[in-house]
Specification:
Strand content of chain A: under 5%
Largest sheet of chain A: none
Number of strands of chain B: 0
Distance between the termini of chain A: 48 Å
Order of helices and strands of chain B: HHHHHHHH
Helix content of chain B: over 70%
Shape of chain A: rod-shaped
Largest sheet of chain B: none
Order of helices and strands of chain A: H
Shape of chain B: elongated
Number of helices of chain B: 8
Number of strands of chain A: 0
Oligomer: heterodimer
Radius of gyration of chain A: 20 Å
Distance between the termini of chain B: 45 Å
Radius of gyration of chain B: 21 Å
Chain lengths: 56, 246
């Protein structure tokens, strides 16, 4: 790994936060998609209202 | 032709096919970009090693503006053509744009402390990007505040278009006012002023960010279409139950 010098804490904090935000965006996309797919499958099967209700 | 292409069913088919290659290309470009950023580019003679923060700060800033521009075009689609996919696109773009704006602000601050001696200054570029972030937050809050999806879409579209005034202000703030933030160094008359050894990782990371953001946007739009189907079916089911009870 390369040497980031005396400013390492700023550099790694910036990259760490970016990774965290990117991971959060992906996780949110996957979980939300999964929830809506399940809700739709339940409704199409006609087994009552979905657990994940509509939001606006 | 365009209407057929923008049909939700057609969109679901095409976006389903495009999503995996887009995500794979973004991952490969991120790997290449990070290699170039950390192992194949020198420290800057003035910024030292902190120049490596620029390889995420600058693409995040571009995408913050890019996604607000997508939202503004989508807002026009909602208000003028009342196209159902326009609102879907706007709704999917807002959280992604807000996240990139946050990354831009925080990484900028983390670069500013060692270089300028402070995390924040109320300079025109920084302030206008903060306003952009607040606009994103306002749009997201408005969606949650209005129950009726049709009314929410129109209100958000109007707010988005009002906020679009800020886009040229962000872009040209460094030219219109005397700012601590440096002027444009990539997209400018006369070409980039950055050395190719630093321009390469910057452009590769920018492309990786763009593909990643586009994949997220497509995925968000697909989920939003599903959410609307869920809502329609829930309402239909409630109506049926009401009729059966009466």
């Amino acid at each position: 790994m390369m040497e980031t010098g005396r400013h390492a804490v700023f550099i790694w904090s910036a990259y760490g936060l970016t990774c965290l935000v990117a991971f959060g965006l992906v996780l949110r996309a996957v979980l939300d998609h999964r929830a809506q797919t399940r809700a739709l499958a339940r409704l199409e099967a006609g087994s009552g209202p979905a657990g994940s209700g509509p939001r606006g | 032709m365009l209407t057929r292409l923008a049909n939700p069913g057609f969109f679901m088919r095409v976006s389903g096919l495009a999503l995996a290659p887009l995500a794979a290309a973004a991952a490969l470009l991120f790997a290449l970009g990070l290699y170039l950023a950390f192992f194949a580019s020198p420290a800057d003679y003035q910024q030292g090693e902190t120049v490596r923060i620029m390889y995420i700060h600058v693409p995040a800033a571009w995408l913050a503006l890019f996604f607000y521009s997508i939202m503004a075009v989508s807002a026009l689609g909602t208000l003028v053509w009342r196209h159902p996919l326009a609102d879907v696109s706007q709704r999917a773009a807002a959280p992604i744009g807000a996240a990139f704006t946050l990354v831009c602000l925080v990484t900028g601050s983390l670069w500013g402390k060692p270089m300028w001696g402070t995390y924040w200054v109320w300079d025109a570029r920084l302030t206008s990007v903060l306003v952009l972030f607040l606009m994103y937050c306002g749009v997201l809050a408005l969606w949650r505040a209005v129950d009726d999806p049709g009314r929410a879409a129109r209100a958000v579209a109007v707010l988005t278009l009002v906020g679009a005034v800020n886009i040229p202000i962000v872009k040209y703030s460094v030219e219109w006012w005397s700012t601590l933030h440096q002027g444009p160094s990539v997209f400018r008359m006369g070409g980039p002023t950055i050395d190719p050894s630093m321009l390469r990782p910057l452009l590769v990371m920018a492309l990786a960010f763009t593909l990643f953001g586009t994949a997220l946007h497509l995925a968000g739009m697909r989920t939003e279409i599903l959410r609307r189907r869920v809502r329609s079916l829930t309402l239909l089911q409630a109506e049926r139950l009401e009729r059966a009870a009466a």
